[in-house]
User: Which sequence fits this backbone?
């Protein structure tokens, strides 16, 4: 009996390991590009895939700006990243994407202190109800509007430093997203959600905004030396679900442990989009598992993307 139990346990662990290596882990970024003399911004880089992305970029010699909302968490990550990479070219700068004023003051400080910007990685994301400082729905405000304003304010510098890239970290959840312009025009929130399903819907909506933003941005960048990409990083064992109930976290633990990527694996598609040579003709497209993927019609609808752009400009005071 004991032998059967032992053999079963070995079989289950081996099967989980093989499944993880073959199915979960996914492809890796194979670019050997070095980044000495290049400057990059990674938003939300104090934890999760933002941090592992920043570590990889710093190891390649880049000057990496950790754009994080918490001074304490940002500075702790800065120390970790310096230790792991041995780089003295990593800098923390405070950026709260849930505050239009914070975004503007981040950009002002960045443009004053840094002469270059080669790659902007809009990675930060939140899965939480509530409102931003400006009264926008938290997920719409941080995941979309915050990055929309940040990108627009940094565009001139990116153009001056071309060839340069903008990477928008979206999610496969964008497939379930909807853009309710009536709701946005009246409440600015794209809904906030109260039930589990509503909150998931609002998150998915914000991730659809990331894909549509990238689609429209690529059009507006035609004729410049700047390209942009959106992506799904995979299902990752990160801190993203930290604001969900402890029951949900406990319930999901076995799934996230065995079936989700770790954060190094989860950063590979961001790195691919940021570094892979020869993908410039794919500007505006969506990637998953280091591969360009088709999106549904609603995620590349020209009229919706343009309307979302114009609404976003109004909501963040660009027009
Ligand atoms: N995890 C997944 O399975 C998964 C799947 C698909 C897509 N994604 C996307 O991948 C990206 C990274 O997520 P992750 O899994 O690495 O999550 P994570 O571990 O929770 O990291 C998210 C990062 O975003 C930052 N952030 C949140 N709100 C912010 C704000 N207002 N201003 C500035 N930074 C803010 C967080 O800062 P604090 O630490 O201060 O909160 C943190 O550094 C997100 O865009 C997410 O939507 C994740």
Assistant:
């Amino acid at each position: 009996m004991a032998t059967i139990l032992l053999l079963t346990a070995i079989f289950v662990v081996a099967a989980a390991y093989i499944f993880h290596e073959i199915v979960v882990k996914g492809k890796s970024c194979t670019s050997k590009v070095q980044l000495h003399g290049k400057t990059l911004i990674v938003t939300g880089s104090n934890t999760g895939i933002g941090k592992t992305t920043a570590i990889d970029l710093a190891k390649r010699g880049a000057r990496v700006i950790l754009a994080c909302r918490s001074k304490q968490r940002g500075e702790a990550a800065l120390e970790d990243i310096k230790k792991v990479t041995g780089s003295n070219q990593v800098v923390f700068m405070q950026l709260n994407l849930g505050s239009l004023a914070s975004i503007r003051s981040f950009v002002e400080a960045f443009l004053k202190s840094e002469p270059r910007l080669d790659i902007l990685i809009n990675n930060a994301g939140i899965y939480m109800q509530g409102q931003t400082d400006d009264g926008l729905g938290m997920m719409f405000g941080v995941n979309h509007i915050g990055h929309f304003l940040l990108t627009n304010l940094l565009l001139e510098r990116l153009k001056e430093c071309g060839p340069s890239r903008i990477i928008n970290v979206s999610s496969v959840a964008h497939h379930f997203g909807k853009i309710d312009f009536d709701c946005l025009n009246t409440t600015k929130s794209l809904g906030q959600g109260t039930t589990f399903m509503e909150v998931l819907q609002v998150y998915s909506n914000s991730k659809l905004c990331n894909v549509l933003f990238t689609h429209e941005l690529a059009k507006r960048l035609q004729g410049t030396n700047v390209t942009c990409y959106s992506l799904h990083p995979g299902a990752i064992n990160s801190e993203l679900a930290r604001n969900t109930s402890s029951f949900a976290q406990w319930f999901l633990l076995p799934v996230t442990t065995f079936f989700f990527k770790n954060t190094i694996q989860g950063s590979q598609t961001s790195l691919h989009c940021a570094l892979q040579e020869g993908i410039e003709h794919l500007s505006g497209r969506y990637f998953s598992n280091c591969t360009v993927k088709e999106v549904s019609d609603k995620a590349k609808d020209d009229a919706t993307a343009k309307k979302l752009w114009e609404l976003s400009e109004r909501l963040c005071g660009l027009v």
About this structure: The radius of gyration is 20 Å. The chain has one domain: 31-315. The first strand starts at residue 39 and ends at 43.
